[in-house]
Amino acid sequence: MDLPDYEKIFKTFLYPLYETSIRKRKTFSYNLEYEKNQWRTTKEIEEIQWRKLKKLLAHCYENVPFYRERMETQGIEPRDVKNKSDYVLLPILTKEDIKENYQDLIAANYRQLTRTKTTGGSTGVPMRFEFDPESDQRRNAVMWRGYRWAGIELGRRSLYLWGGVLDERGIFRNLKNKYYNLFLRRKIVDSFVLSDKTTKKMIDEINRYQPLNIVGYVASLMLVAKYIDNQNCSVHKPLSIISAAETLHEFQREYLEKVFDCPIYNTYGCREFMLIAGECEKRKGLHINSDHLLVETIDENGVNITERPGRVVITDLHNYGMPFIRYLNGDIAEINDKKCCCGRGLPMMASVNGRELDIINTPDGRSIPGEFFPHLMKEVASVDEFQVIQQELEIIKILIVSKKGLSEKEKIFLKENVQKALGQEVEVYYEYTDSIPRTNTGKLRVTLSYVNKH
After folding, report:
1. Interval 223-232: pLDDT, tens
2. Could you please report the per-residue DSSP string of 328-360?
3. Are 158 and 214 in contact (CB under 8 A)?
4. Which residues in the chain come in under a pLDDT of 70?
5. Which of 7, 24, 187, 360 could tie 368 with a disulfide, CB 3.0–4.6 Å?
6. Domain spanning 359-449: which CATH class is it, in words?
7. What pTM does this model have?
8. Which CATH number among 2.70.40.10, 3.40.50.300, 1.10.10.10, 3.40.50.12780 corresponds to the domain 3-355?
């Protein structure tokens, strides 16, 4: 059976059979719902979003002790929230709120029905949270919609350069995952440990499996691309590549497209919600999944902003088990009012600027965004990977992986530009190393600041 035949049978028969009849899940029907929603007008999508939000607020007031107490403290009930202006007056939910009020955030009518997930701990401390079955199914449905924009269809042969599975739940669970991935025609390649040897194995796996699509962390994709470029390797050309989990800078997109000779699609998500936004075939910005989530950006005073970067605040419209209302997830992004020429009514996110904690602050009051360093390092060809660490306000350590070593000219260029950006009050130390540790989920954080900014 050739690939197109399998895709057609998988989408129209095998996947609906498995999800609906065997697993008794509504993932397939939710997928159809979201497929229709994307082509509605912006106003129609906003109406869908508002109906879902009103229903969620009523549920929280009736069943979630944390939110009922918050609303009563403010002297409001769900019926008082009549428009967006009322909604944005609701308090922000922080990670600290979740840790300190965990049990009170679980809905009374969903106890024993939720599952537990843990974030990757990119801020240093992993966070647990709960989600219910419908939320899980809808997240997967939205993910498939977003991946379809980049050419990944259900049942299409795809390869993932992903974090290794740290699963200690037994042989049966791991075997089940293996065969489920075979069923989806999804090949997972561990990118936790990266070296010349493992990178070569990844390229061999790409050439052997010949995926039509590749999904990967930006850092993993860049390392593989640099190896291909430097070693003049031949590599199978996929139809498209999705970058995930880390900020994709434009120079990285250009480099990856040159090496792999295919379009790169940017996505934005986090473990608490999965796919938040993604690029369609036009690649003119990221479509926000606003029929599934309510995404805002706020300034330092908590005021909604657009057309410039702000702190990301998200409400999950479907996680009734542990509702997240106006959750501050620690990211910086920019929302704008532009419309995509693709015809979808979903609103646009212009860019994702990285983690809020990636910002480096200095004694003389400067705030250096995390994206400064990738743009600087791209000018130093001998740098394979790097990480900027700020343990104290006046001290910065920069880890550098360089297989061939930096030339004196590159060292001078780097030191002059780093010092210029950070100011003379900051001491900068350079440390050359063979590798840089990843987070628990395999991501590379290029800037780490442990300085309290508040």
Report:
1. 899 999 989 9
2. EEEEEEEEE----TT---S-EEEEEEEEGGGPE
3. yes
4. 1-4, 120-126, 163-172, 192-194, 356-358, 370-371, 439-443, 452-454
5. 360
6. alpha beta
7. 0.84
8. 3.40.50.12780
